[in-house]
Amino acid sequence: MDSSVEENVPNQTGAESKLAKSEEAGKPSNSIGLLPIMIFLAATVTTAVVVELLPHASKVFPWSSIDSPEDLQQPPPTYAIFGRSPTEEHLVHVVKVLDMFGYQRVGVNESWNLLWAHDYPFLSFASLKNLDQNQLVNHFPGCGYLTNKVDLCTSQLPFLPRAFRLPAQREEFLDYARDNPRALFVQKHNEHRHIKVRAPADIAFGSNDSFVQEFVQRPFLVDGHKFDIGVYVVITSVNPLRAYIYTGDVLFRYCPVKYHPFDAENVDKYIVGDDYLPTWEVPSLRKYYNRFGGSMRTVFEAYVRDQDMEPAKIWPQVEHIIRTTIAAKESDIVNILRSYKTHNFFDLMRFDLFIDEDLKVFLMEANMSPNLSSAHFKPNSLLYEQVLYSVFNLVGIRPLTAASGTLFGESNEMITADKNLATDLNRCAAYDCDKSCNKEECDLCLQCLSGSEYKMLQNAHEEHLHRIDMKRIFPQQIHDLKSFNIMEETANMTKKNAWMTRWFYNKCQFDAAWCN
Ligand SMILES: Nc1ncnc2c1ncn2[C@@H]1O[C@H](COP(=O)(O)OP(=O)(O)OP(=O)(O)O)[C@@H](O)[C@H]1O
């Protein structure tokens, strides 16, 4: 995969560029016999190669595998920030949390362990193709397949409002508009904001990189106000895919003007803009938020219950939408990743969704580098810092002081050892997987894991132990182990995703805490 392919990734945009501007400011041929050869190789090749070939040889973060007292004196891990924004006001919470964790800030061209990129960094730094094992970047190359609005919204996933790419699908759109005379439409671009409901005759068909989308009518209203919800999502791995959502809270943004009587000319009635109405200013939510200390999500749920409706039906839809969307784009991202030596990437996104009056959920967009600035709405500081605290812990960026500073003295084995990864013991024994790995049944047996597979399981295990307020949505949670059919569930998955899902299934059989 050459870099020109990556340049063809759907335009790497994300709402946060906008928001920052505006809102707030192999297996070793399955043969045990190869292990001694690998050990021999380990003595002769570079560390980076060892990392790929030899199980147990690598630790993502060297500072978590330091053995001697002298190592304790080594300098703290470092982070750099990349972004073309003129101010860094929108990153104050990122800086605050990393500083609090004991990370030291350095320049982007210095030696860093974490690159926090607000803008898509992969076209600016060729070096990201050859990251060291102890380096991490907060985006996946190719994440534009998810965050590019035109590409995502015209994907024809069932939970997206009907959309037509322009100018290519002009005729299809006109047919649809003719067949659905009561339908309203909005035209959207990757970069442009300020969308507005338009009649089909007012659509600019010549506009490239745009699409026209059916406007979802009958929104669920709170005190008469339309709103959208922002769910924070973290992808920690692709091939195999692992994705999580933040459950500590959800960003609710209300339109400042009541929806009815509907007036297409007054966008404040139906578009959530920069000056949205925050939860604490919505009359019926204020009491729950201010007096009873709820979160944006729990006060909304209290309101829904007050309307004799059941809010619990919303969240499984949200999880399904996010899981399905990410899974649908995984292969595109995997293709881009082929030209990257190490895959030390994670991605924090915000999925914006919308709820109609039947509590049916629709996907609006996925934002790259979600807005984390509380300049406009101070009470959002805590939300952003809690999200970051969870994200960082999940991906292995953890506080280095006080109690957690002990990480400096312990080996990674203290967190994740062979016995924490080994599953399928009966099957491994029944199929003699310690003698030969040439059977599918041996795929998860410890002796049959390649170095990179071992590391995948190690990362999955560490993530599980450090989820804080993150909930795994891929591989999917197992709600009822008895009715869960692993063969059926994995039938349409890629080999690696089926493998990873089976590992979680095995862990879930061992302890219910792993089902979730
Ligand atoms: N098809 C639609 N049907 C109903 N409402 C819509 C539709 N498209 C957009 N909206 C409303 O407009 C808001 C903004 O739309 P969208 O997310 O596509 O634009 P944006 O300018 O990128 O906004 P932001 O990134 O701030 O969320 C949505 O949150 C929703 O309230």
Automatic annotation (TrEMBL):
<dbReference type="Pfam" id="PF03133">
    <property type="entry name" value="TTL"/>
</dbReference>
<dbReference type="InterPro" id="IPR053317">
    <property type="entry name" value="Tubulin_polyglutamylase"/>
</dbReference>
<feature type="region of interest" description="Disordered">
    <location>
        <begin position="1"/>
        <end position="27"/>
    </location>
</feature>
<protein>
    <recommendedName>
        <fullName>Tubulin polyglutamylase TTLL6</fullName>
    </recommendedName>
</protein>
<dbReference type="InterPro" id="IPR004344">
    <property type="entry name" value="TTL/TTLL_fam"/>
</dbReference>
